[in-house]
Amino acid sequence: ASVKSYAAVDLGASSGRVMVGRVGPDSLELSEAHRFVNRPVRVPEGLRWDILSLYGGVLDGLRAAGQVDSVGIDSWAVDYGLLDADGALLGNPVHYRDPRTEGVAQKVWATVPAPELYAATGLQYAPFNTLYQLVADRLTGAQRLLLIPDLLTYWLTGEQGTELTNASTTQLIDPRTRGWSYDIASRLGIDLGLFAPLRQPGDPAGLLRPEVLEETGLTGPVPVTAVGSHDTASAVAAVPASGERFAYICTGTWSLAGLELDAPVLTEESRAANFTNELGLDGTVRYLRNIMGLWLLQECVRAWGDPDLGELLPEAAKVPALRSVVDASDPVFLPPGRMPERIAEACRASGQPVPVSPAEVTRCILDSLALAHRKAVEEAQRLADHPVDVVHVVGGGTRNALLCQLTADACGLPVVAGPTEAAALGNVLVQARAHGLVGDLPGGRELLTRTQPLARYEPQGDTARWREAQSRLAGV
Ligand code: ADP
Ligand code: LRH
């Protein structure tokens, strides 16, 4: 039987990679063709993505990948490039951690009250939702808006579209109809004509342009296939679960913790708990909460001069558990810089011991993440009335055994960890599906369970101590 090769371009906030998935009727092998850093750049006007360098990384990756049957692109959500009337990029895309959206939400809510906005779009409040970015930006001269994966797809193929799963993070999509929210856009003066027509995961997105073939050494025609272009949508598609009674946590720069549902939860209680309803494959809803994730550790590690995680994590494992915890969902941790200091300030403000050494701070971060995972998994089950028996952890954080064990302990549930490159695997599966090689979502998940290395962590200790730690954060 024939084996096909798919290039999955997966751009995370901390690194980009081009992976090659080889898919047969009963096999799936993933290998890394190229990995490159994604370093946000601080210029006088603010924090920007180095999009040309990322595109260069994609081209290098495609060259390293060699001949493939299709290419798919996913990346972090919400951000975009603006094009002029000639299709040329107007400036570097702004990073979602740029402070220009401060206070914008309050202005938006004066026109569309927050409860109404939630009922219409199902999106959690985050200052960086595309909607708030658009209200903050001067759009002079902009004729077209392309979300990051759509922009790279456009550069590769010359064709424009707006892929649905990522569009669902703009706060301009109605999760019930899975189409544009015309009413919200018009009341806020946002011209939906800026967006290219919607594309569904699996749709064709053009062929690599001749210049791209020349630069990558590939022989055409090579199609680009729309995938779940929001990295989290691709990662959730690659959660190796069976049945419905599972929660997932996509751990990387962020922790995205929640459930896969058939319908959005748009209640006022859900809004108050800041759960989001993003769109997934096959009519599913990704009901989840954003938790600051390993960003907290990345920023500390950067402040400490880049010590090796392989040495730091065993030291953190020796620090007594749950001495101090911070609220890992708190937007105070969103901007870059001064992370060890900000964590110390949060511990002081809640009357807990201040962690000092890198090992102590690291332990505080991992305990705090596990605690936030517990809270999200518990609240999602309650708000969606959807009980689970297992927590699947996917993404870069699966390399952190301490975090996986603490998450199992905190949730009081078994954790199945892996795959690490879930987003790339979800990306590959959608391409393989579009070409008739694998079946539906459960079929893809079953293939992953059979082919990918997974680790299991059983919960240990008494969950009461996690409840006690949570109570220290109440009312802070
Ligand atoms: P993103 O896609 O958001 O850029 P990843 O899924 O690549 O993020 O995950 C990156 C995180 O994975 C890092 O911040 C780090 O904490 C963790 N990680 C990567 N390699 C290791 C390792 N060898 N040991 C422990 N953790 C690791
Ligand atoms: C993770 C992610 C997450 C979004 C954030 C902006 O990479 O896509 O799902 O909320 O970046």
UniProtKB/TrEMBL annotation:
GO terms of molecular function: ATP binding; glycerol kinase activity; rhamnulokinase activity
Protein keywords: ATP-binding, Disulfide bond, Kinase, Nucleotide-binding, Rhamnose metabolism, Transferase
Annotated Carbohydrate kinase FGGY N-terminal domain residues: 67-236
GO cellular component, one term: cytosol
Domain of life where this protein originates: Bacteria
Coiled coil: none
GO biological process, one term: rhamnose catabolic process
Protein name as catalogued: Rhamnulokinase
